[in-house]
Amino acid sequence: MNIPALDETDKGILNLLQKDAHLTIDQLAKQLKKSKTPIFQRIKRLKEQGYIKAFVALLDQQKISPLFIAFPHIHLTSHSEAVLRQFQDQVSQFPEVMECYHLTGDVDFMLKIVLPDMQAYNNFLREKLASLPNIGNVHSYLVLSQAKHDTALIL
């Protein structure tokens, strides 16, 4: 499938929706100085082409419950394509894993884990992560505070 490049109107739509996905077609059209029909058609195309994956609500984590965030850095004992894929597939199934990154350098993977407290993280390490094959060692980095959290990509 040949996906055309984003033009300025597409980028404008995506930038506005990243800041507030609750904007109506009418509001988007007014802000972009376009008529409603082309804005509607562009949003539909951006969804179909996969630029827009979903519309979600971002929750205030601290209002939901106190959270414990850790970034374990994981070294695997094997680096074959099958082992790397298996690890990614397995950790992606754990609801505690919010993000998973395959890295260059001294670390094979970095995860973002969100749990209620240190005990829950300890249980996660022992019962889930340590049960996976090819885990060499894990170095955990614990979040003390968060200075910035943004979800909008720069277009």
UniProtKB/TrEMBL annotation:
GO terms for biological process: regulation of DNA-templated transcription; response to amino acid. Gene3D superfamilies: 3.30.70.920, Winged helix-like DNA-binding domain superfamily/Winged helix DNA-binding domain. Keywords: DNA-binding, Transcription, Transcription regulation. One of its GO terms (cellular component) is cytosol. SMART domains: HTH_ASNC. InterPro entries: ArsR-like_HTH, AsnC-type_HTH_dom, Dimeric_a/b-barrel, Tscrpt_reg_AsnC-like, Tscrpt_reg_AsnC/Lrp_C, WH-like_DNA-bd_sf, WH_DNA-bd_sf. The keyword Metal-binding does not apply. Residues 6-72 form the HTH asnC-type domain. Coiled coil: none annotated. GO terms for molecular function: sequence-specific DNA binding. PANTHER family: LEUCINE-RESPONSIVE REGULATORY PROTEIN, TRANSCRIPTIONAL REGULATOR AZLB. This is Lrp/AsnC family leucine-responsive transcriptional regulator. It comes from Pedobacter nutrimenti. The lineage of its organism: Bacteria, Pseudomonadati, Bacteroidota, Sphingobacteriia, Sphingobacteriales.
